[in-house]
Protein 1
Amino acid sequence: MPEITIKKRMPLLIHVLGWSLFGSVIFLLTPLSSEVERPDEFWIKQALQFIFLVATFYFNFFYLIPKVLFKNKNYLFLFLNFLGGLAYVGILILYDEWFNMQELMHLAFRPEVPYTPRPRNLYWDISSLLIFYMSVGISTSIGAVQKWQSDEKIRLELQQQQINSELSYLKAQINPHFFFNTLNNIYALTNIDVEKAKTALLKLSRMMRYVLYETEKNQTLLSKENEFIKDFIELMKLRLTNKVTLDLHIPEKIEDAEIAPMLLLPFIENCFKHGISSQKESSILISLSKEKNYLVLHTENTIFKSTENTPEGSASGIGMTNTVRRLELLYPGKYKLDIDQENAENQFRITLKIDLS
């Protein structure tokens, strides 16, 4: 509670100190530095000027800026401040004439010289006008900066809400897509080998726990993601034939860091979805490593086009497209994705490098 009270009082304290410094330098220290005793009317005028400038500052800050300037009435704002400056100088001129300030100041500075009326010195009026517009300019600058900060805060909050909503939507798309393919694989296994199908179900249940609990978080441990990937690959291996050459470089243990859950799965899933054939020889290479703060995933697979009428073919591209979008949202400027699918070897290659620092 004391800290909150101090924070609330800080703006008021800053205003008091700021005006005290401004008033002391402009209206107090400068006249006193001449070491001339000035009449009471002069000090009353100084006090009136100070009060007028303070009132102008806050009237401009609390009314003209939000009600006129921020309503795009720029010319009206300038016109009102122009009139305010003229009124300010006009009041000072009337005060000087009313109290005969020229004669009083002459007697204060040169009492031995007889007073002779002279034309008004416009230098002091111009100086007063500039001080008036300095007060207006400072309040306008502060108001504009606060408005910019407020707008920027709202913009960032809206952007964050949009990102969170979009990430939730993308994860909702990726997860059903993953389970659709995995259940399709298990269904195929039940007609071939029941024991393998049971093993696949056990691995899938472990993966489901990961998906249910870890994807609720924005970040998970890289070691958990690594185990999840290994389970997925083991599950995929159950359906491979001897026509597929599988080259894996997945570490048993990996240095921990935080990463978005299920971010790597679509790239690996893509290898098995499009990189195997029941009639032709094919190869898949998957490499995962952590180099200092960088996570590097490299995959290669033979390109086979899925039949569009099959469930896998119709779902093609959903997981990959959404994952690239997730990368853009979660790691802007901190990842590099190279995709090579036009080469003489008919290989689809992906290299993903993410800065996890």
Protein 2
Amino acid sequence: MTKNVRVRFAPSPTGPLHIGGVRTALFNYLFAKKHNGTFILRVEDTDQNRYVEGAEQYIIDALNWCGIPADESPVNPGKYGPYRQSERKTLYKAYADELIASGNAYYAFDTSETLDFHRKDHEAKGKTFIYNWHNRLKLSNSLSLSAEEVKAKIDAGEDYVIRFKSPQDETLHLTDIIRGDIKIDTNILDDKVLFKSDGMPTYHLANIVDDHLMEISHVIRGEEWLPSLALHYQLYKAFGWEAPEFAHLPLILKPTGKGKLSKRDGDKLGFPVFPLEWTDPKTGDVSRGYKEDGYFPEAMINFLAFLGWNPGTEQEIFNLDELIAAFDLNKVNKSGARFDPDKTKWFNHHYMQEQNDSELAEVFKGKHSELADIDVNYISMVIGLIKERATFVSDFWDLSHFFFTAPTSYDEKASKKAFKEGTKEILSEVISIVNNIEDFSVESLQTEIKSWITSNEIGFGKVMMPLRLALVGALQGPDVFDIMYMIGKSETVRRVENVIEILK
């Protein structure tokens, strides 16, 4: 790629960042890094009515947690700032005026009441009201009014908007990296508002001006912006600017595969749709986050990458560097990507195995008061034995509690299966063997107990099941000999003696 790659993620700070937005940011990041380019965060906060306190910082924190921080942003500005659209608002009026001067835009003085009347009138006739070439000369704007009338209205302080003048009887030939060639009949396009009566630009104008001034080379955004592509291409043409290349990512669909994934789907099916936990500043409502639910950022990035993109191989596990090397917009699918909550857990289980046991031990210890006085190195060793069965750190206690506290009860169904006639005598012999082992190690335990079982021609289940039940309280956990070694000789004997006492 010869051009200098500069891409941007441009969210609105109207609430928490949905994982669909994180996926868009990720694809922009991967594309930028693949081509030694720049990944920019631009906060599009011109809609002050929908602005939510704390949302901008949430977006920044989310990208940082995911490991895909912006190279340029409001908190890390480059030479193309400001990076908040609200701080750029003085720029846009001049560009709107430029479009009016070139005949590509016009003043429109129609009141909201007038426009509402036309909409309802069209609905009553089974039609849809579109403000464009077929009716604009019948409405109140600078195309239907004389220059004097227009000046008088502006001088009198009448509210107006500036609309783009869509061409008539033309066919636009557009190109999208993911979707290929697109043809648009301009007769079906409406004359979008570019500048509002409150003196603020609409998304369309501000977006195009900012992308041009920030020298954005590729616009990689969600499918929901595809209907705006025609207008954006026309704006670039009207300004005489070179348009960036466009790529519209597929929707992330509900687990059923029908409809766009929403927060409601997560609430209903029990999974988060936001990267970090979010507390609504107005209502106090708390929305779950992947971080707080125990997902690793590497897992989240890996599963998000596969929502709409496929490397074309059987490989599914990719670290960030591998994703950067493999990523290709031409391998992004057009069709929506179904979100699979079970697959996200599968990824997290994989990344659990790659985590450092000592670091996991610190996290685990911090979550359970029962572990406050236990050596973190011991906890780390326990985690090494049980984490292959874990998907989240929150799974650890159920998988390992018997390493820290002796069982106080025994699974009823397992007890009936394990405790038979002669079990008390068998366990008493196990105690004798354990007490006679000087080198108390996993290997010694395994050798001595298995040799005794074999030489006495006892079924392994008759020994190992009640022994496990004595140590754990259930027929679960890692290798019995690992458990015995970890809890030590005296605790092993004590637990087996407890069971023998119960069997009496």
Protein 3
Amino acid sequence: MRTFIAIPLPGELLHYLTEIQTLLRKGIRSGVAWVNPTSIHLTLKFLGEINEKQLPDVRMKLADCLKNTSKFQLTSGGIGCFPGITNPKVLWSGIQMNPNLEDIQFKIETTLSQIGFEKEERKFSPHLTLGRVKTGLLRPEQEFLQKIIEQEAHHDPMIFVVNQVVLYKSDLTRSGAIYSAISINQLIENNR
């Protein structure tokens, strides 16, 4: 089964991301596979294909590395694209890196490497994928995207509380991926 570890998002942020996608669709007509807004999440670690026998170890290691992790806040804001505006492959909304997010992602990466999952070589770049560009954007679409990126840079950031880390399975269908929670790890209240 295809699996990944992610932070689910609150409804108000998903609503905002839906509005952004609607806005982007008005000026980008080229082949973009838009992510279903209800499926948008913050990926911490993509595990890929695992078999049923690996699942208990993954669940146990994940729960163990998160057991003393407190809830924390994240800030979302702005949009952009990878690798750049002239040849975008991924359209995204940004997540501000903070020490809590960096720590939790590092713990997951390190812990799961102990049971055979390779550490990601690329630097962790937190983002929320809005769509994947299947064909190159035309020049007017690139200009439109640049305008929206600049416009959204002035939008008030959204702050939300991270209180769960979820192990998901991903079932690929003709209408897109369907994500189902395998295990939910609740983060603890910070008693400071």
